[in-house]
Amino acid sequence: MSEELKGKEFGPFVYIVWRKKVEDFIEATGDENPVYLDDEAAREAGYDGKLVPISFASATGSVALWSVIGALGVDLSRLLHGGHEFEFIKPLRDADFLTTTLRVADIVDKKKLRLYILEGKTVNAAGEEVLRFKTTLIERRG
Amino acid sequence: MPKELYFEDIDEGYEIPPLIRDITRRRILKYADAGGDYNPIHVNEEFGKKVGLGGIIAHGMLSYAFLVQMMTNWLPKPTYLKRLRAEFRGMVFPGDVITCKGRVVKKYVKDGENYIECEVWCENQKGEKTTIGTAVATLPSRGQK
After folding, report:
1. What pLDDT digit, counting tens, does each position of A21-66 carry?
2. Nearest C-alpha of chain A: how many angstroms from B48?
3. Parallel, antiparallel, or unpaired for β A129-140 and B129-138?
4. Which of A54, A117, B57, B113 would give a disulfide with A106, using CB separation of 3.0 to 4.6 Å?
5. Do A55 and B72 touch (CB under 8 A)?
6. Closest by CA position to B119, among listed B107, B138, B97, B136
């Protein structure tokens, strides 16, 4: 039963920020802020080199999330993403080695839905926290 | 050159410049590539039809990324964005045109930092709100380094 999963922790999951994926992401989203593309523009804005798009955070957690979805035993045809929150603590950089851990914070049963609330955090190779997140998965039932 | 925008210039009710994005299959597939999220409802038309969605739908996190982008396009520095929470209310399909909008709803100072809180949302071409949320960012004061 998935209730037994409440409070369970998952991870650590490793993700390496690879520029090719960042380029796919920029093509998907059209997020062409010069500080993500050009070292010089980034330096003018006060950074020490180009950043990875802030919104790319969304692309780094999939492996972790899919592992948890597998453990929850949710039928994919009934799964929807209800919501998401990121706290952006430190910008991501190319070749960052990220480690994500997450836990099932709550499972809420409603009439025709079950909500899984997952919370987690991501740290870089130096052990610095870069992201915190909370995500809600919805399983349609009945 | 960094854009200039100061805490003193922004009042509650200030409207953030909107961001408009057309939803194409290519965008959805590229997003799947970037994040490794190949849930069949995002990449397999037949599967989407079978589960009653009429075809593929865009990732909720693609709309999330657009909201972040609207904020970071507007803020003088993208790292001024501190948090963004979004609820996915409606499905987004290929062929939709999504407009992200936002409005400053609160200004406050906490621990010596200037904060603004904004309500943010995505609308489709029918004016339906497909995503709603809240963003929190910091802004410098005039005269502050």
Report:
1. 999 999 999 999 999 999 999 999 999 999 999 999 988 888 788 8
2. 8
3. unpaired
4. A117
5. yes
6. B136
Q: What is the CATH number of domain A2-18+52-140?
A: 3.10.129.10
Of the candidates B40, B78, B86, the beta carbon closest to that of A51 is on B78
Record the pTM.
Answer: 0.95
Side-chain-side CA neighbours of residue A61 (13 Å): 27
pLDDT digits (tens, 9 = 90+) for A102-141: 999 999 999 999 999 999 999 999 999 999 999 999 998 8
CATH number at residue B79: 3.10.129.10
**Which DSSP helix (H) or strand (E) runs through A40?**
helix A39-44
**B1 burial class (0-12, 13-18, 19+ CB within 10 angstroms)?**
exposed
Top residue of A13, A16, A88 to mutate, by most chain B CBs within 10 Å, is A88
Instruction: Name the helix (H) or strand (E) containing B104.
Output: strand B97-110
Q: Which residue has the tokens 């399983």?
A: A139
Complex ipTM, two decimals? 0.94
For B74, the domain range is 7-23+58-138
Contacts of B48 (CB under 8 A, 6+ apart): B40, B41, B54, B55, B56, B57
Closest-CA residue of B relative to A25 is B34
Nearest-neighbour CA in chain A from B56: distance (Å): 12
Q: Residue B69 falls within a domain, yes or no?
A: yes
